Amino acid sequence: MTSIACSVGEIDRKDAEQVARVLTDALWDLPSMRFAFEGVPEDAIRRRFRRGLSSVTLGALSFGRVLAARADGEIQGAAIAYPPGAWPLPFFRWVRSGLGFLTIGPKPFVRLARYDGILSRLHPAQPHWYLYFLGVPPERQGRGLGRALFSRLAEIAAADRVPMCLETDKESNVGFYAANGCVVTATHDLQGIGGIRLWQMRSEPSSTTTAE
Q1: CA 85/CA 53 separation, integer angstroms
Q2: Taking all residues of the chain, what is their mean pLDDT, rounded to a whole number?
Q3: Residues with Cβ < 8 Å from 208, sequence gap 6 or more?
Q4: Exposed, middle or buried by CB within 10 Å (0-12, 13-18, 19+), for 62?
């Protein structure tokens, strides 16, 4: 697909629900989400995941950064990131951010909490910006939206002279981030978490983005 003109900027609270919808469409089929919601009908997964993402988005407006890529008058991609020292979130911020996930059901919640605990234990200690979510719905991919979001976040991290760190459990995402200046720093096979493979990646302040 051909790249389209888009603008990337921070959102207002009124945009939080739309961001949650966009991220749900983009991320609901991640291996970690499929593990968490195993046995749950697809429409219910999307509905419950969107409720959780809505509270994460609202929380990130207070102690993180939420960016949206807009094209043709609507939000078509979004990203949530946290500044140096903000992640893992302190307990009360974690609770506030995850309130929506309390409604997804006990089994999915416990599974997501286990996965989140692993991510926290593996989290790098050095100062960095942390890319928590970046997503563009499948039907809108390949048009430069993801690249534009990542490029803006890379600029923010570079201005603070720290790397941007992230992890992904979807192999096809590794190539996207590598093309945009990231390197794999570690891989982990998560036993007991659905056989998920996790790639930890980092973009140094001097990295430049090149492709989507």
Answers
A1: 22
A2: 90
A3: 154, 181
A4: exposed
Beta bridge partners of 9: 68
pLDDT at residue 207 above 70? no
Q: What gap in Å lies between CA 144 and CA 131, rounded to an integer? A: 18
* Element housing 45 (H / E): helix 42-63
Cβ–Cβ < 8 Å for 134, 150: yes
31-64: per-residue pLDDT in tens? 998 898 888 888 888 898 898 899 999 999 999 9
Tell me the whole-structure pTM to 2 decimals: 0.91
Number of neighbours of residue 179 by Cβ within 10 angstroms: 14
Pairing of strands 182-190, 7-10: unpaired
Report the distance separating Cα 90 and Cα 159, nearest Å.
Answer: 25
- Amino acid 124 reads P
Q: Alpha-carbon distance 61 to 97, whole Å?
A: 10
Between 93 and 95, residue with greater pLDDT: 93
